[in-house]
Structures are given as structure tokens and as C-alpha cells.
């Protein structure tokens, strides 16, 4: 059986240096980077496996973190799967395992977390009441928590994309392609339960105002019935009808596309549409969707780093939330405005935005 003494002998360091490096202890940062790399390489080559049970019994430190979320198949969306992948990737690098707890019974989850002496928690819960209850529990028990959706709760941080900056990218992109009548497809705000809805809604209005584009109230929908809203807007006469749709999710855009095609519109020649999410289905829509990359995998990685106090290379923290800069994925759904084509133009007055093609 390989021991830390074996690793220390081959790495030409004392066993304390090996122990601190393998445990990712903050004091290991005092060693030279090449020394830490040599220790990790030798440990991997020898197939070293730490005795987690003995270590936790001796030190009281359990090398597991808790992940709280709702894991039913009906609610485990693409975003959660990508986030979990990022969490597993980074936690493995940090030498930690992941225990998953369902948020359906938070009291039971809390009892098991305390019983297992877990000191680190990640939350996939977007609902404000559950997030606040988790914050109270962690505060009372001296546990660290990081949220994967929405924003910070009290002193506990979160990881998110910058929704306002993302909205600007989308609206500016449409404006550059000559669109002026840009419709908004939002959802009911439900007493401000989810901040991303408010931010993407607000981002649309702010961006339209910054670009000097008029907002027609008849082209704004905050309804669960996307199909009815799109059908109503497309029934307007040509001079009032939108030439583009800004949806706060790719799912809304796909539903809007189906309605447009049924009504005889050609995509993207007659209508442009943009959204948020960049899930696999976005590429397979009637017209593959121009969208914002929400960096779900990276969110999982960054949340683990923040949980363990690693702030190296992090995006800026704004009011306790690590905001990841958005990137625009340009596909075929954001065609040039037909009115611009007919007049010989191809761009609006907005400045050039940064994006990547996919």
C-alpha cells in the first residue's frame, strides 16, 4: 500500500508537504508550484488513495460537499445537468466527493448534512424561500454555501451570468441587422420570484432606450401563453408587425418559431429571433437559434472554487454575486431585417458587438 512517506521520499520533501498538498491545504501554497506538481504527479503515478474514513475521524474534516436541488426527471433541466458536470469536475480536482440531497424535504437534508459533518454546500434551488432557508441553516451551523442560480443571499455568494449585459448583446445584434420593431417575449414575473426574469425584461427596455429604438407596448408580452402572444403580434399590419423577437429563453423562441411557420412566415427571411440558453435543442430549431451562452458548466466549476476560497482568475463579484461575462452565439435565426434588405441597408446605427459564431 502506497503511503505519504513513499511519496515524500520520491519527491524529496517531508511528509508534511505531501499531506498539505494532497489535502489542498492553504499552507500548500507556500510551496513552489513545481514542487506541488511533482508531489501530485508522483502520487498519481503510484496510485495513491487516501484513507478518507481515517482522515475524517482523526481531523473531523469530511472531504465531501453537499449539493441541494430538486432532482426529479421533470425538473432536472439541461442547465442543471451541465452545472452538476462542472461541480463534479472541479470537486474531483479539489479532492472532494459530492453528496446530493433533494430540496423537497429541506429539514431532512439539513439533518443529514449536519450528521455527516459536511461543511460545504452548493445550492441548485432558484426559489427565494428555499434559498433563504438554506442561508439560515448554514449561518446557524457555521457552514459555507454558494448558490448556482440567481444572486447572493446575505453573506453567501452566488454564480450567475450578467443578464443585463447579455440583453444588450442580443438587442444590439438585432439592431445591427436593421431591426427596429423588436418584440419582447417574457413570462409572468410572479411577485418577483426569479431575478433573471426581471433582469432580462429590464435589459430589453434599457437596451432599446440606449439604442434609440421605440418600444411598442403591443409588442411586449409577459405571458405563459407564448403561442397566443406571437400569433397576436404577427396578425398586425406590416407597418406595426415585429420584424424580430427577443425571448428570455430559447424554449420561448422555439415555440415562437412554430407559430410563425404555421402562419406562413419564412425563417429567418421574414422574422429574426434571439434567446438565452444555448441548449442542444437550440441548434435543431426550425432556424438554429442565435442565443446567449449561459456558461452552466463553468458556473459549477467556479462555485466549487469560491466555496473553497479560491478567487484566482474569477470574474468580478458584484454585491456578492460572481457575474460571468456573456457571449453571443450567432446562428441563422437572427436574419437581416427584410425592410433593410429592400432599402439596400444591412446594418442599423448600433456599434459593432463582439460575438462568436457557432
List the defining traits of the structure above.
alpha/beta; Rossmann fold; 3 domains; four-stranded parallel beta sheet; 41% helix
List the helices and strands and how they pair.
Blueprint: H1 4-11, H2 15-22, H3 33-46, H4 52-59, E1 64-69, H5 78-93, E2 97-102, H6 106-115, E3 120-123, H7 128-141, E4 144-147, E5 158-161, H8 163-176, E6 182-186, H9 195-210, E7 220-222, H10 226-234, E8 244-247, H11 250-262, E9 272-277, E10 290-293, H12 296-307, E11 317-318, E12 321-324, E13 327-330, H13 338-342, E14 356-357
Parallel strand pairs: 1-2, 1-3, 3-4, 5-12, 6-7, 6-8, 8-9, 9-10, 13-14
Antiparallel strand pairs: 10-13, 11-12
Helix pairs in contact: 1-2, 1-3, 2-3, 5-12, 8-9, 10-11
Overall geometry comes to elongated
Q: CATH topology of the largest domain, anyone?
A: Rossmann fold
- Secondary structural class: alpha/beta
Please report the total strand number as a whole number: 14
How much of the residues is beta strand, in percent?
15-25%
CATH architectural category of the largest domain: 3-Layer(aba) Sandwich
Helix content: 40-55%
Question: How much is the radius of gyration in Å?
Answer: 25 Å
Strand order of the largest sheet: 7-6-8-9-10-13-14
H/I helix tally? 13
How many domains, in number, for the residues?
A: 3
What is the assigned CATH homologous superfamily of the largest domain?
Answer: Response regulator
Amino acid at each position: 500500500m502506497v503511503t505519504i512517506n513513499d511519496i515524500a521520499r520520491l519527491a524529496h520533501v517531508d511528509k508534511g508537504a505531501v499531506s498539505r498538498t494532497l489535502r489542498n491545504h492553504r499552507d500548500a501554497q507556500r510551496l513552489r508550484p513545481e514542487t506541488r506538481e511533482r508531489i501530485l504527479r508522483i502520487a498519481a503515478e503510484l496510485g495513491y488513495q487516501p484513507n478518507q474514513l481515517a482522515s475524517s475521524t482523526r481531523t473531523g474534516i469530511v472531504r465531501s460537499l453537499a449539493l441541494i436541488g430538486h432532482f426529479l426527471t421533470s425538473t432536472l433541466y439541461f442547465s442543471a445537468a451541465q452545472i452538476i458536470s462542472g461541480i463534479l469536475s472541479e470537486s474531483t480536482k479539489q479532492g472532494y466527493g459530492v453528496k446530493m440531497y433533494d430540496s423537497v424535504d429541506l429539514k431532512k437534508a439539513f439533518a443529514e448534512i449536519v450528521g455527516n459533518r459536511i461543511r460545504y454546500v452548493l445550492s441548485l434551488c432558484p426559489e427565494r424561500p428555499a434559498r433563504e432557508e438554506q442561508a439560515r441553516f448554514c449561518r446557524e451551523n457555521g457552514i459555507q454555501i454558494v448558490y448556482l442560480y440567481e444572486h447572493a443571499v446575505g453573506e453567501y455568494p452566488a454564480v450567475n451570468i450578467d443578464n443585463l449585459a447579455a440583453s444588450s448583446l442580443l438587442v444590439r445584434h438585432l439592431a445591427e441587422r436593421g431591426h427596429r420593431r423588436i418584440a419582447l417575449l417574457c413570462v409572468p414575473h410572479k411577485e418577483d420570484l426569479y431575478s433573471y426574469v426581471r433582469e432580462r425584461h429590464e435589459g430589453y427596455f434599457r437596451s432599446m432606450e440606449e439604442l434609440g429604438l421605440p418600444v411598442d407596448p403591443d409588442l411586449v408580452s409577459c405571458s405563459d401563453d407564448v403561442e397566443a402572444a406571437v400569433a397576436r403580434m404577427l396578425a398586425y399590419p406590416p407597418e406595426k408587425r415585429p420584424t424580430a423577437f427577443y425571448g428570455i429563453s430559447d424554449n420561448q423562441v422555439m415555440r415562437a418559431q412554430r407559430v410563425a411557420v404555421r402562419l406562413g412566415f419564412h425563417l429567418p427571411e421574414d422574422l429574426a429571433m434571439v434567446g438565452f440558453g444555448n441548449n442542444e435543442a437550440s441548434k435543431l430549431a426550425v432556424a438554429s437559434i442565435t442565443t446567449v451562452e449561459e456558461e452552466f458548466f463553468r458556473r459549477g466549476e467556479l462555485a466549487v472554487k469560491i466555496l473553497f476560497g479560491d478567487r484566482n482568475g474569477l470574474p468580478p463579484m458584484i454585491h456578492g454575486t460572481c457575474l460571468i461575462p456573456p457571449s453571443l452565439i450567432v446562428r441563422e435565426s437572427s436574419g437581416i431585417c427584410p425592410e433593410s434588405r429592400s432599402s439596400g441597408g444591412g446594418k442599423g446605427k448600433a456599434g459593432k458587438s463582439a460575438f462568436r459564431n457557432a
